Amino acid sequence: MKDFDYAAPTALNEAVSLLAQHNGSAKILAGGTDIIVQLREGLKDADVVIDVKKIPELTQLSYSAESGLSMGASVPCYQLYENPEIVGAYGALTDSARIIGGWQIQSRASVGGNLCNSSPAADSIPSLIANNATAHIVGPNGSREVAVTEFCTAPGKNVLESGELLVKITLPARVSKSASAYLRFIPRNEMDIAVAGVGSWVKLSEDGNTIEDARMGLCAVSATPQFAEEASAFLRGKPATDETFAAAGELAKKIASPIDDMRGTVEYRIHLVGVLTKRTLKIACERASEN
Amino acid sequence: MSTETPKAEVYLGKTDYKVIGTRPIRHDGADKVTGKAIYTADFKLPGMLHGAILRSPHPHANIKSIDTSAAEAMDGVMAVITAADMPGLKDKNASLGEGSVNLLDLGSNVLAHGKVLYRGHAVAAVAAKSVHIAQEALKHIVVEYEELPAVTWVLDAMKDDAPILLDRVRTDDMGEMSESPTNISKHIRFEKGNIEDGFSQCDIVIEKEFRTETVHQGYIEPHASVASWNEDGHLKIWTATQGSFTARQQTAELLELPVSKVTVTPCEIGGGFGGKIAVYTQPVAAMLSQKSGRPVKVTMQRNEVFEGTGPTPGSYMKVKIGATNDGKLVAGEAWLAYDAGAFPGGVIGPGCMCVFSCYEFEHAKVDGYDVLVNKPKTQAYRAPGSTHVAFAVETIVDEIAEKLEMDPIDFRLQNAAKEGTVRVDGLKYPRIGLIETLEALKNSDHYQSKLEGPNKGRGLGCGFWFNIGLKSSVTATVNSDGMVSLIEGSTDIGGTRTSIAMQFAETLGIPAEDVIPKVADTDSIGYTDVTGGSRVTFSTGLAAYKCALDIQDQLRARAADLWECEPENVTIEEGVYSHNGDSMTFKELADKACKVGDPVAGSATVSPDCFTNGFAAHLADVEVDPETGKVTILRYTAVQDAGKAIHPSYVEGQMQGGAVQGIGWTLNEEYFYDDKGTMKNASFLDYRMPTCLDVPMIETIIVEVPNPDHPYGVRGVGEPPICPPPGAIANAIYHATGQRMTELPISPPKLWKAISEK
Questions:
Q1: A-chain residues within 8 Å CB-CB of B694?
Q2: Do A261 and B685 touch (CB under 8 A)?
Q3: Which chain A residues touch B130 with a CB distance below 8 Å?
């Protein structure tokens, strides 16, 4: 491992100028659960590692029923699932936060970091997509917003330009009779990486029988996490039944283009998208009927 | 046979011991739980350098050249070594107690000589002032490789047109040597009866092919060594090893030193399971120390452990078993090919001996092949070679029992090996406890309970391991406070300090807590073979028993002096020495003996030439998710004949640990190779050992059929419990899904595919 400098700016503009100054040779450390391993294993190099946890905007977490969730980019996972209001409003997201690593990892790792690491198998991204989240970015040229659906561009790559930093992620306020759920398949029961993952959000009719709207995100079955647009559109106006869920699963499978590797075969991963879509829709509908 | 099966308690051995069979706190417990125990990675010496090892990125290649000059020129780099720095290797075998090793192979494995034979094969090493400098320096060593085609599957490696790993290898075909180079280094055959006649008597014959993948022991502590080569030519090594004396011998042989010029101090060890017997880091650290003139520490990272140290082999097995309609096994035939990794000498031998070890077969035949492939040299892993064949045989035995509509335990009981059974390799069993083990399982709450519901199934499996004797030494000194220091050469992996101290204490009639056990370096205790073969509690325990008798005789003589009587007139009961109305406790006598006359110290050495023969039977309940192929273990019971459980908690721990490792091997663990021969999962993230959320509490039942070759009846316990799980779980999966899975691991994609295609 190459030696590097460490910086811990306390203001956004300071971080942005440090990033700009090092022009790509600076790496950001939020929870550090990915970057430290990557540096140690020689997968990434850095001249300077910038710890962003001392920047106030990046550690703020706020929720209100009216305006929704605003989550600083370095807010650790446990803060999400320990907040009952957030669990109630964004079930998929807190399902994800609970299974990223173990407890020790969850006390450091952030959803923002998970998004910026841009792994195809990132557990939080399908849930962010299902919950229609927006990424808020600052850089040398000011700030901009990007839908999380558009954030990742390739394995480990995303829309962040040189000098840019993710500040926060926002999720819209919960509407009544809506809920979401995330499931991944792993061969073990913890400490594993998704073979396939699906996050599903639904909005039901007042009587709970019909799906009025839906959004689904997939991971680990293509180069980037994806919004399952056709399957989501299909669900609008459909009865909330096992047959509907299975049919949506078949549509979601159409956009899966996974690889064969030590975590699963192409055939198996595509199959899992169908299973997980069906199962997450069922859980999301149950949760939506309850609140 | 009798339909009345006695209760398990009937088989408990002598139970009126004072120490044996109790559960004292282990002597090294406080150090371990408070983090004060010294492991090799904790160990520091003044001026110590840090080493790093350059490893081959290719599974098979000739080394055209190695240029170390740029690395040597770096600031902070103190030494760089390659195979050229090693003394000339000899093509000769060195005995290592449990097995032997060819020094040319061993040395070529420690540092590649002219050719790399697997990805991760060590090529060069650096010692530098920091580990980061050492790792950076590796990037500046220029190795020119000529890549060669690689072969990683055992049957491919046996083909005539397979890439040849080592030109010097010839097939030893039952004593006849082949003429041309080959990857098949050995063909073994065992036969008993007449196999054709045997099958002709059978009403039912089942033949199946099986495949298993390479798996690693997965010990938590990566390999580590510190070496300090003094100016006087004496080499000191601190290391994680299962055998300090074999580490000493291997290192001395490779570096052409007399063994007495090498002192090996075993540090605490974080698991071995057979994988910490061969040397890897010890000679490298020593050579770096010699070249730099400084102490050097070499520690591995996890990926180096996976790619650079010995796993247990992948295998192909074809097994055929026949029985009569009344449920008698008659004939068994096996054709076994185990990969040895990159050098000859894998675990095919014990595989062949174990394949039919649990049952009485009148006719049997086994052919076994030891085959080189471009994977790390295989090493022992807990009952090496036996788990593979237990998977195959238990699967077929289950199917025969099912076809004959017999209870799987009754079927096994009817055919179980017992005293007098002659194994296929010709060994005749002394008193063994498989029948009692199966009866205990039959009477267990688990077996008596009902398993109901869809996608659930119950399976049974048995397993066997020899358990060896070999050489052990202990010495003991009586202190004036009545405590006894007990020095031993067996490195303590599974709580053996305590299990040895307990036997010593029982013999002397003192509490286990009054014994202070210590594992010493190779200059401070007599020769002791490896902690392996499930031998230490048996064999070093036997030495402790003899040593305690020696101490007792000395104290009896001292008491006789004090009482002015003949030693034979002093009676001893539970540590109290008496004569004619006078009596002294051990403590009182120790105090007196230490004040006047010679110090009281004893020693004993043993080399029992026997096997202690351990049998285990496991029962697994599983539930299968038919949509994903994922298996959940609902309930699991391990039963085993321990002979006599010295410390029952440690015996239970061994049974549970073996079961969990077997569960991992069955369900998810495998070296996953891409088509270029590169292992793609050299980390605990993707090499999936079970976590605590993946296994239920493993229930244990200890059966005690005393071993006639040990004063307390001890049998080895560490290895048998890894053998039954694959068979038990595969059988349970069959009863849950209707699918006979014949390839390990039975990972979710495989099982889902089998279910979805049925």
A1: 188-190
A2: no
A3: none
- Name the residue among A193, A265, A267 with its Cβ closest to that of B685: A193
Flag whether B622 is in a domain: yes
Are residues A188 and B694, on separate chains, in Cβ contact within 8 Å? Answer: yes
How many domains is chain B partitioned into structurally? 3
> Half-sphere exposure of A12 toward its Cβ, with a 13 Å CA cutoff?
19
Gap between the Cα atoms of B490 and B503, Å rounded: 15
B489 Cβ neighbours under 8 A, 6+ residues apart: B244, B245, B472, B473, B474, B519, B520, B522, B525, B526, B527, B528, B540
**Vertex B554 angle, CA B553 and B555, to 5°:** 90
Q: Please count the residue pairs, one from chain A and one from chain B, whose beta carbons lie less than 8 angstroms apart.
A: 53
CATH of domain A57-171: 3.30.465.10
- Interchain CB distance below 8 Å, A188 and B688: yes
Residue B718 Cα, gap to closest chain A Cα (Å):
25
Residues B95 and B244 in one domain: yes
- Which chain B residues are within 8 Å of A258, Cβ to Cβ? none
Contact B752 A193 (CB under 8 A): no
- Give, rounded to a whole angstrom, the gap between the first and last alpha carbons of chain A: 51
Q: Are residues B478 and B463 in the same domain?
A: no
**With bands split at pLDDT 50, 70 and 90, how would you rate the model's confidence at B91?**
confident
Asked whether the bond before B408 is cis by omega within 30 degrees of 0, the reply is: no
The number of residues in chain A equals 291
Question: A residues 244-273 near B, CB within 8 Å?
Answer: 261-265, 267-268, 271-272
- Mean pLDDT value across residues B610-627: 97
The sheet with strand B582-585 has its strands ordered as B571-573, B576-579, B582-585
Domain boundaries, chain A: 5-51, 57-171, 178-290
Task: Please name the member of B135, B681, B752 whose beta carbon is closest to the beta carbon of A262.
Answer: B681
Question: Do B630 and A263 count as a contact with CB atoms less than 8 A apart?
Answer: no
What gap in Å lies between CA B258 and CA B251, rounded to an integer? 10
The answer for B521, left when phi > 0, alpha when psi is -120 to 50, beta otherwise, is beta
Residue with tokens 């009054």: B514
Judged by CB atoms closer than 8 Å, whether chains meet at B694 and A185 is answered as no
Contacts A267 to B, Cβ<8 Å: 753
Distance CA B660, CA B485 (A): 35
Q: Does A243 touch chain B (CB under 8 A)?
A: no
> What is the assigned CATH class of domain A5-51?
alpha beta
- Whether A189 and chain B come into contact, CB under 8 Å, resolves to yes
Same-domain pairing of B600 and B628: no
Same domain, yes or no: B640 and B742: yes
Residue B5 has pLDDT above 60, yes or no: no
Tokens at residue B73, please? 């020129």
Q: Read off the pLDDT of residues B384-439 as tens digits, 9 standing for 90 and up.
A: 999 999 999 999 999 999 999 999 999 999 999 999 999 999 999 999 999 999 99
Question: What 8-state DSSP symbol labels residue B222?
Answer: P
Looking at the structure, tell me whether residues B463 and B476 fall in a common domain. Answer: no
ipTM above 0.90, yes or no: yes
Residue A195, CA distances (Å) to A188, B303, B396 in order: 11, 22, 33
